[in-house]
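Structure (tokenized):
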């Protein structure tokens, strides 16, 4: 008798969006050469002028599973946290004003040689693939989306860190001309976040440059953002312009604001509530019912080992 073991990040096959429909769309898009133009949400700025559009859709890497059901593209691209524009979730229109060409990433800290590189030049050097990941916001909403991009480990190796740095620190663009939210002096801009180096070089850690088989929309963090799917969403810094390798643990924007509620590790755990609400369940975008949240957002079998020696720390806040 064959017994199939369902892993933590998987849902029943009957609940998943039929992959054939998604793959058919990908094939049509690629054959027509439309790239980012296809099936855009109403009103979204099209990316047909993006010089990287021809790189998408990227080949699917299913090593970490293909959880479902997939969140509808329109929902994932019109319900966004991006406080540089506004604290409202409907910032996608305002985000279209953000310039993403030219885009330069500065690399510094404990590296062989500090340098700057344009996004398009960086992307040309990276191995692109697609991964379907869960995303869990600390606010308890969630989504499942197909990110395209490359392993963060590949970026770390490209930067050539030296002297055994303990952390990687990343910062978001702070452009006062296009980001009206920067006028709110309550927030310690620029948005800063980071990972321990063993987290950054873990195989799950990802730099997303695309979404739904096309270049990533501005409101989702164009042109490149962090995706660490076992952590709460606020760790996933968007629109990265700076990467630094350091020995000192970075203090993120939300941790600076309220350290008792937003810590450095921010790993998902349904048994550890936020000080002001439960984390036991989540509400998928577009759904009517709440579902149980999973330890490490369903990726415990991959990442739990990272924290065996850190059990004395506040890992789930």
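Design, position by position:
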């Amino acid at each position: 008798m064959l017994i199939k073991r369902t892993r933590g990040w998987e849902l029943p096959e009957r609940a998943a969006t039929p992959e054939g429909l998604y793959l058919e769309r990908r094939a049509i898009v690629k054959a027509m050469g439309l790239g980012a133009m296809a099936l855009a949400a109403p009103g979204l700025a099209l990316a047909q002028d993006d010089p990287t559009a021809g790189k998408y859709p990227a080949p699917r890497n299913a090593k970490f599973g293909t959880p479902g059901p997939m969140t509808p593209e329109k929902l994932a691209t019109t319900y966004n946290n991006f406080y540089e524009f506004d604290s409202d979730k409907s910032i996608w229109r305002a985000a279209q004003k953000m310039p993403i060409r030219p885009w330069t990433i500065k690399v510094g800290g404990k590296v062989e040689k500090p340098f700057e590189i344009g996004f398009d030049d960086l992307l040309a050097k990276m191995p692109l693939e697609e991964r379907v990941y869960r995303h869990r916001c600390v606010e308890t909403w969630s989504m499942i989306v197909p990110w395209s991009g490359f392993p963060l480990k590949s970026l770390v190796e490209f930067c050539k860190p030296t002297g055994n740095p303990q952390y990687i620190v990343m910062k978001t663009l702070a452009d006062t001309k296009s980001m009206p939210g920067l006028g709110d002096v309550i927030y310690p801009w620029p948005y800063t976040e980071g990972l321990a180096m063993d987290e950054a070089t873990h195989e799950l850690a990802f730099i997303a440059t695309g979404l739904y088989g096309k270049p990533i929309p501005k409101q989702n963090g164009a042109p490149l953002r962090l995706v660490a799917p076992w952590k709460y969403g606020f760790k996933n810094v968007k629109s990265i312009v700076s990467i630094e390798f350091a020995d000192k643990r970075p203090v993120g924007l939300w941790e600076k604001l309220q350290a008792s509620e937003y810590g450095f590790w921010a790993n998902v755990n349904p048994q550890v509530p936020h000080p002001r609400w439960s984390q036991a369940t989540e509400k998928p975008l577009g759904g009517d019912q709440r579902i149980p949240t999973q330890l490490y957002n369903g990726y415990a079998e991959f990442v739990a080992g990272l924290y065996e020696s850190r059990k004395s720390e506040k890992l789930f806040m």
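Reviewer-requested clarification: Residues 13-310 form a domain with the Sulfite Oxidase; Chain A, domain 2 fold (CATH 3.90.420.10). The mean pLDDT is 89.
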